[in-house]
Amino acid sequence: MITWPFDWTVYAGLAVACLGHAWLARHAPDARRRHSLYFGLGVLALWVALETPVDSISDAYLDSVHMLQHVLLAFVAPPLMLLGLSPSMAGRLLHLPGVRALTEPVPAQVIAAVVMIGWHVPALYDPTLYSNALHVLEHVTFIASGLLLYWPILEATSAHARWRMSDPAKLVYMLLATLPQDGVALALIFSRVPFYEFYTHAPRLVAGYTALIDQTIAGAVLMILGKTTLAVAALTVFFRWFGAEQRADQARALQS
């Protein structure tokens, strides 16, 4: 049965996140209204993923909707929440134990890849659908890995990094970030047998919408929608780099 779930722990977590952001913004001279707007949109994306029928359908019926949920948790909400941070707000967060080390480009990339591939291995994916505690852990790690993955890309959050990547390096970083999700997506799209036992027994919401068709669409959702925010970030970085190069050429032309 498709229902609107209610989990008070989700609402408590979202409330804590909002209060934490408000506290950071209050003590940040460079905080602006746009930061609150972006952070609010990130929280909204988490709410849509966890407290709407997206959650109940993914838990009981469709792997494709479950994959949409993972995309919202790992690739939509995290960059929006990070856009909600000014440089000084991000700097305060780096004082938390372990945050600075984990947000450097190499560990961030590796952790995000391990989380993406690891949770989609059937030996881990199926148990999350039978264990609520394991499912919560999966969701938390998707959110955390998404925050780590996007941290080195965005200007405000990367401003304090020990290794600040150039714009070309960021483009390479984002290209590498697509490989783990593409590996999972291609396996789902081209497999001729269902990967996940749970969905082979799930009720069919639409006649003829088999577990294999559902799995193929799940792979397409991950491949297409999972790339969307990375593509937006890559285009932003590219045009900023291109604009800087043009301005530099114009400056040299004026000097000559």
What does this structure look like?
With 256 residues, this protein is mainly α. It has 13 helices and no strands. It has helices spanning 8-26, 33-50, 53-60, 63-83, 87-93, 99-102, 105-119, 122-128, 132-150, 155-158, 167-190, 197-200, 211-255. α1 runs antiparallel to α2 (33-50) and α4 crosses α9 (132-150). The radius of gyration is 20 Å and the shape is globular. The termini are far apart. 35% of the residues are buried. The mean pLDDT is 92.
Give a quick summary of the entry:
This protein is mainly α and 256 residues long. The chain has 13 helices and no strands.
| Separate helix tally | 13
Number of DSSP E strands: 0
Q: Which class of secondary structure composition applies to the elements?
A: mainly alpha
Percent of residues in beta strands? under 5%
Tell me the major beta sheet: none
Q: What overall form do the CA principal axes indicate?
A: globular
Order of helices and strands: HHHHHHHHHHHHH
User: How would you state the average pLDDT, rounded?
Assistant: 92
Radius of gyration: 20 Å
Helicity, as a percent range: over 70%
Low-confidence stretches: none
How far apart are the termini?
72 Å
Keywords, separated by commas or semicolons:
256 residues, 13 helices, single chain, mainly alpha, globular
Spell out the blueprint of helices and strands.
Elements lengths: L7 H19 L6 H18 L2 H8 L2 H21 L3 H7 L5 H4 L2 H15 L2 H7 L3 H19 L4 H4 L8 H24 L6 H4 L10 H45 L1
